[in-house]
Design goal:
The chain has 419 residues and is α+β, with helices and mostly antiparallel strands. Helices cover 37% and strands 28% of the residues. The chain has 13 helices and 20 strands. Strands 5, 6, 12, 13, 14, 15, 16, 17 and 20 form a nine-stranded mixed sheet that branches. Strands 1, 2, 8, 9, 10, 11, 18 and 19 form an eight-stranded mixed sheet that branches. A hairpin with a 2-residue loop joins strand 18 and strand 19. The N and C termini lie far apart (55 Å). It comes from Amphritea pacifica. Its cofactor is FAD. Keywords: FAD, Flavoprotein, Monooxygenase, Oxidoreductase, Ubiquinone. This is UbiH/UbiF/VisC/COQ6 family ubiquinone biosynthesis hydroxylase. Pathway: Cofactor biosynthesis; ubiquinone biosynthesis.
């Protein structure tokens, strides 16, 4: 086997998390290959993104935290995202549709310019594709799949067989190919998973009133409904999590009927819902890998864990994974140790597994709390939300952690101390 068939790192999946890892390792000196099963045009990602603008907004958006902004800045992508399209949001209004509980978070109370940014997933991906294309140490291969993955040899290297017939060897393979990761399966890593009993409908809607640069979330009797502001003040991206039967019925409505149903469910906080783009629906399941690493292998992002979207933390957790794994690899290379060994890669697992499990447990707790018709829990959650709204120090501490301004964060995710 020739030297050309060997590389240091293979990242399977050119989504936001996999591309972020590659971009963060630009100066590591490692040879990196990215494998992507989709047929995308990596040679001109910006033109690809701009061509999509004419078709409106991407129905899939992410509420990126300050910590994620720092990671993407370190990856060299945030500057491009700013030049494309993003929406800083200044406030968040959350209320219980089955009671009187409500809470509002406002960036002014924290003396911050915003709480975070709503960014279309394809914008983030386009910026990262451009960044990766400029890296001398990185190659991107599209329309190719991983078919076989060997067990590690004595040096923790693995052999990969690709759908194009190529056979390569890598010091480490990273699964970043989503919730149904074939790479994770080939590595023999099992999952804990269960169905949330929810389907999520996503689309872009136009409303009579301005979105007020605010994220809105109402907890309905069937699940949470979120309106996320877009740069056009009368447009919002929605995520409506509800029962499978209700989601099916909503998807069968025509546009006018759906707009009416959506407006009622949202209590018409933004006035009449005037129109909607194409709707998409997908089931929600919680998943968590039983382990993140083996010798010569690591799983990040949705390949390692998925959670309910009610707090919008899925992509942010994945970006923290990418930052933590990049730091683990960079530190290992600098120290001259076997950075691809299971012993060393466990540093990444220790840094992220407990954080991700804690967030998953929190989301499950929220879902259960707001999915009960028992009057006592409903009374407690309403009084609790209203009380928390009056306790500014406690409320601000919670929102600072959600923004990624405090807590156990990778170095690359920490904002520099301001003068």
């Amino acid at each position: 086997m020739t030297q050309n068939n060997e590389t240091d790192l293979v990242i399977v999946g050119a989504g936001m998390v996999g591309l972020t890892l590659a971009a963060l390792l630009a100066d590591s000196g490692l040879r990196i290959r990215i494998l992507e099963s989709r047929e995308i045009d990596p040679a001109n990602a910006l033109a690809w993104e701009h061509s999509q603008r004419a078709n409106g907004y991407d129905p899939r958006v992410s509420a990126l935290t300050v910590a994620s902004q720092q990671v993407l800045t370190a990856a060299g992508a945030w500057q491009q995202i700013e030049q494309m399209r993003l929406m800083p949001y200044r406030a968040m209004d959350v209320w219980d549709g089955e009671g009187s509980g409500a809470i509002r978070f406002d960036c002014a109370e924290l003396h911050e310019p915003c709480l975070g940014h709503i960014v279309e997933n394809r914008v983030t991906q386009a910026a990262l594709l451009n960044r990766v294309q400029g890296q001398e140490n990185c190659e991107l291969f599209v329309a190719v799949r991983l078919q076989e993955l060997s067990e590690p040899d004595a040096d923790a290297m693995r052999t990969l067989t690709l759908s194009n017939g190529e056979v390569i060897r890598a010091r480490c393979v990273v699964a970043a190919d989503g919730a149904l990761s074939n790479t994770r399966r080939l590595a023999g890593i099992g999952m804990w998973e269960w169905d949330y009993g929810h389907h999520a409908i996503v689309t872009t809607v136009a409303t009579e009133k301005s979105n007020q640069a605010t994220c809105w979330q109402r907890f309905t009797e069937d699940g949470p409904l979120a309106f996320l502001p877009l740069p056009d003040p009368h447009l919002s991206s929605i995520v409506w999590s509800t029962s499978p039967d209700h989601a099916k019925a909503l998807m069968e409505l025509d546009e006018a009927e759906f707009c009416q149903a959506l407006g009622r469910a949202f209590e018409e906080r933004l006035g009449v819902v005037q129109q909607t783009d194409q709707r998409f629906v997908f089931p929600l399941r919680q998943r968590h890998a039983k382990q993140y690493v083996k010798a010569g292998f690591a799983a990040i992002g949705d390949a390692a864990h998925t959670i309910h979207p009610l707090a919008g933390q899925g992509v942010n957790l994945g970006l923290m994974d990418a930052a933590a794994l990049a730091e683990t690899i960079i530190d290992g290379v600098a120290d001259g140790v076997a950075w691809n060994s299971e012993y060393h890669l466990r540093r990444f697992q220790r840094a992220r597994q407990s954080e991700n499990l804690q967030m998953a447990a929190t989301m499950e707790g929220f879902k259960r709390l707001f999915n009960t018709h028992n009057p006592l829990p409903r009374l407690l959650r309403n009084s609790g939300m209203s009380l928390l709204n009056t306790l500014a120090p406690v409320k601000n501490h919670i929102v600072q952690q959600a923004m990624g301004l405090s807590g156990n964060l990778p170095r690359l995710a920490r904002r520099p101390v301001r003068d």
